[in-house]
């Protein structure tokens, strides 16, 4: 029979993207992590990973085992939670970026609470950088957010291009001495630093024309031509335009949407919630076009 401890280590290495981060998450040494994986490979008689000093790649057998390992561990957590459902109480503090503040996630949370009526989930919507700081300080248990780069490791849920969003009637090209007007969220906005750095790299002057408190206010700023803004492709709506090379704007990096948990938390109930919501994806901007048009008719 496969050892659940070894399977848990194997999954943690994959989710965290390396031995060091997995060791931190599981409160083990890197040598212990390596030992667990060697024992697991010995039990199975196959090589699970191809490792170099710079990379780690799952073998075909490793990919197969990962599917089974996740299922085995999930069943174990479900059994612990289900058998002790009447004891499942307490409060889980969840921080989400606005990308995730949608009915899909909230419906999933409502279903989880129906299974655990004594449990309380408190949700905070905010900027990913702020939420990760609260996670580090112990004020949150889970964070769902986007980032171009982060010192913290997290479970990758989704990744997509970051693009320059502009209005349909913006003047071409955005060159010369006039500063490019930009719209951002307040600091620590996950895209502000990278957007400003890329503009500076190609010698384009810029100014922050609007600091927005919501996606809707940012979309209004862009739609009207008052400013342009870095947005993920899924945030684009039919009335916005992705800037092409004619505008002279530099390319932007890929955005990663990740799930982060506090390193010290290893509650079976919390891990079950993580699995419950880990396949959530940001809502596509095309799905909210009707809401945008309705807002515009109200004078936005």
TrEMBL record:
One GO MF term: DNA-binding transcription factor activity
InterPro entries for this protein: LTTR, LysR_HTH_N, LysR_subst-bd, WH-like_DNA-bd_sf, WH_DNA-bd_sf
Keyword terms of this UniProt record: DNA-binding, Transcription, Transcription regulation
Start and end residues of each HTH lysR-type domain: 6-59
One Pfam family recorded for the sequence: LysR_substrate
Superkingdom of origin: Bacteria
Protein family membership: Belongs to the LysR transcriptional regulatory family.
Name the UniProt record assigns to this protein: LysR family transcriptional regulator
Natural source organism: Advenella kashmirensis
């Amino acid at each position: 029979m496969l050892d659940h401890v070894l399977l848990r280590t194997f999954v943690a290495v994959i989710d965290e993207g390396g031995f060091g981060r997995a060791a931190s998450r599981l409160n083990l040494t890197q040598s212990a992590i390596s030992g667990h994986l060697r024992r697991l490979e010995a039990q199975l008689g196959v090589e699970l990973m191809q490792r170099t000093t710079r990379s780690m790649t799952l073998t075909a057998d490793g990919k197969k085992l990962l599917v089974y390992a996740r299922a085995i561990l999930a069943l174990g957590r479900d059994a612990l939670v289900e058998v002790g459902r009447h004891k499942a109480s307490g409060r889980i503090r969840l921080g989400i970026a606005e990308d995730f503040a949608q009915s899909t996630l909230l419906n999933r949370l409502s279903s989880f609470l129906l299974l655990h009526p004594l449990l309380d989930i408190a949700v905070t919507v905010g900027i990913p950088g702020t939420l990760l700081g609260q996670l580090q300080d112990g004020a949150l248990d889970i964070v769902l957010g986007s980032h171009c780069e982060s010192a913290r490791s997290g479970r990758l849920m989704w990744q997509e291009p970051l693009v320059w969003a502009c209005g349909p009637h913006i003047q071409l090209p955005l060159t010369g001495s006039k500063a490019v007007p930009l719209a951002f969220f307040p600091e620590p906005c996950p895209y502000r630093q990278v957007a400003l750095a890329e503009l500076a790299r190609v010698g384009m002057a810029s100014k922050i024309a609007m600091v927005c408190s919501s996606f809707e206010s940012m979309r209004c700023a862009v739609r009207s031509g008052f400013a342009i803004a870095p947005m993920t492709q899924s945030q684009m709506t039919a009335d916005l335009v992705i800037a092409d090379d004619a505008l002279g704007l530099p390319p932007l990096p890929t955005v990663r949407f990740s799930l982060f948990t506090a390193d010290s938390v290893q509650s079976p109930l919390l891990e079950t919630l993580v699995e419950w919501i880990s396949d959530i994806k940001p809502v596509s901007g095309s799905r909210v076009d009707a809401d945008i048009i309705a807002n515009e008719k109200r004078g936005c």
